Amino acid sequence: MAADLNLEWICSLPRTWTYGITRGGRVFFINEEAKSTTWLHPVTGEAVVTGHRRQSTDLPTGWEEAYTFEGARYYINPIYL
């Protein structure tokens, strides 16, 4: 399950954790102590839904690039949804 980014998520991060946002708008979490990152919130285990889809000029008209919560890329054409 995923959740929207909000202040509660940020405030509930453990002391050694921070967060970052990719160029595509996807939120990830950083464990400063372990020097590691994850897509999943360290307390809830959920990914943050940020609408991290983007349209690319390299794709055919109508197609968008998106990512699974595990980070795998896939393509969407909303016309077919």
UniProtKB/TrEMBL annotation:
Record GO terms (molecular function): phosphatidylinositol-3,5-bisphosphate binding; phosphatidylinositol-3-phosphate binding; phosphatidylinositol-4-phosphate binding; phosphatidylinositol-5-phosphate binding
Gene3D superfamilies in UniProt: 2.20.70.10
Subcellular location: Cytoplasm
Record carries keyword Phosphoprotein: yes
WW domain sequence ranges: 11-44, 57-77
Keywords for this protein: Cytoplasm, Phosphoprotein, Repeat
Annotated Gene Ontology cellular component terms: cytosol
InterPro entries: WW_dom, WW_dom_sf
Protein name from the UniProt record: Pleckstrin homology domain-containing family A member 5 isoform X15
Species whose genome carries this gene: Tursiops truncatus (Atlantic bottle-nosed dolphin)
